[in-house]
Design a protein that fits this description.
By secondary structure, this protein is mainly alpha-helical. 67% of the residues lie in helices and 0% in strands.
């Protein structure tokens, strides 16, 4: 898929401005000369700079934003369904992870996405369990990310 540089430049400007503006809402860290707003602010400024550079480059090249066209992959219901299912999975995780825990949402989510992509159930079930457990131990054990649900790391 070929993207228009002018369109990408404007998109970077919008995203950079949104990140920069939201960074002003973060609270400062006590006894620190820099705070939780530092990296988002720098990231937003970087995005703004990239956006300006892309827009200037595109305008010098004489580009214009093309009319909206539907890409051929958007007519394939399996691809669109996969994207919708992935977004619905993220929404389901946000809504239900506090009640069901990480594994209570991750296992059915991975299983559903595998089945949607055509995996055989006899293979999809154990793979979903192993992948979910691996993700849990990676994030909770190695990276020390607090995940919702029971603390399985206390078993080891």
């Amino acid at each position: 898929m070929k993207a228009n540089t002018l369109f990408l430049g404007f998109a970077m400007l919008v995203m950079g401005a949104a990140v920069f503006a939201s960074s002003w809402l973060y609270h400062p860290l006590p006894d620190q000369s820099y705070g939780s707003d530092t990296m988002p602010r720098l990231t937003g400024l970087f995005g703004l700079g990239i956006g300006v550079a892309l827009v200037v480059q595109a305008l010098r090249a004489g580009q214009r934003i093309p009319a909206l066209t539907v890409q051929p992959w958007l007519t394939d219901w399996r691809r669109v369904g996969g994207m919708v299912a992935a977004a619905a999975g993220v929404l389901a995780y946000v809504l239900f992870s506090d009640q069901l825990g990480f594994l209570g949402v991750a296992v059915p989510l991975v299983l559903a996405l595998m089945l949607l992509r055509g995996a055989r159930p006899v293979l999809a079930v154990p793979v979903a369990v192993v992948i979910s457990l691996a993700a849990y131990f990676l994030f909770a054990g190695l990276l020390l990310v607090p995940l919702p649900g029971p603390d399985l790391m206390s078993l080891f």
